């Protein structure tokens, strides 16, 4: 397995000198994110998101299972992240890396622990049958800021996903095929998105959406999870340089603005894809929770 070469002193000095002039080595300003591209389909719940050169694919699947004994009225929701050598030659396949653990923890906080998915709506028969929804996230190319790209892909896939409709008569549950009935969207309480920052010069300089080089040179980092209701869902900071409260508040304000823009882009992409997939022009934004018109 090839070893990762540490950034040289010249690279460090060049990055810091550029930041001192309000510029970044890839031409962005400190508050600019890389270009975002969202591709959905052809299957329901399949999303590929590119953030610059970083690319992530998310696929949602659902099956009927027995509920957990301590939560008989709730369905199940799981997230699974795969970071392999396909994304970067410095990653060892089959071995859990520190970065993979960190990204998984942040995604769990941002999406599952914030209860983005309404698990109660996944219940079919209390104590007997519930939907189990699983999101598999595969990193295709790692060029920095996996957390933000993975969150976008996961939420786009969840908004795009449609599960089979069901008929419940007594204790009998009939799962209809897509030909028999139109599929049903998931019920989402909100749409959380992660916005990550890197800090330099002991926290005095900050950049949004750090590149791979900036991540390796940073003095610290922080990820802010927000939704379109201007709610702070989570805040993750794994060590690094201490930050004054003013810097934290500035990051939250920036994350709120960027999160609203990205949410709108995801919703527009989902709506356009569903127009082509659903019969009769039905957009399928019903089903409770967050609709695409919101």
Automatic annotation (TrEMBL):
One of the GO BP terms on file: exonucleolytic trimming to generate mature 3'-end of 5.8S rRNA from tricistronic rRNA transcript (SSU-rRNA, 5.8S rRNA, LSU-rRNA)
GO molecular function: mRNA 3'-UTR AU-rich region binding
Residue stretches making up the Exoribonuclease phosphorolytic domain: 33-164, 190-257
Pfam families in the cross-refs: RNase_PH, RNase_PH_C
Keywords: Cytoplasm, Exosome, Nucleus, Ribonucleoprotein, Ribosomal protein, RNA-binding, rRNA processing
InterPro entries, per the entry: ExoRNase_PH_dom1 (IPR001247), ExoRNase_PH_dom2 (IPR015847), ExoRNase_PH_dom2_sf (IPR036345), Exosome_comp_Rrp42_subfam (IPR050590), PNPase/RNase_PH_dom_sf (IPR027408), Ribosomal_Su5_D2-typ_SF (IPR020568), Rrp45 (IPR033100)
Compartments it resides in: Cytoplasm; Nucleus, Nucleolus
GO cellular component, one term: cytoplasmic exosome (RNase complex)
Gene3D superfamilies linked to this entry: GHMP Kinase, N-terminal domain (3.30.230.70)
Keyword Acyltransferase among UniProt keywords: no
Coiled-coil region(s): none
PANTHER family found in the cross-reference section: EXOSOME COMPLEX COMPONENT RRP45, EXOSOME COMPLEX EXONUCLEASE RIBOSOMAL RNA PROCESSING PROTEIN
Family indicated by similarity: Belongs to the RNase PH family.
Protein name, entry field: Exosome complex component RRP45
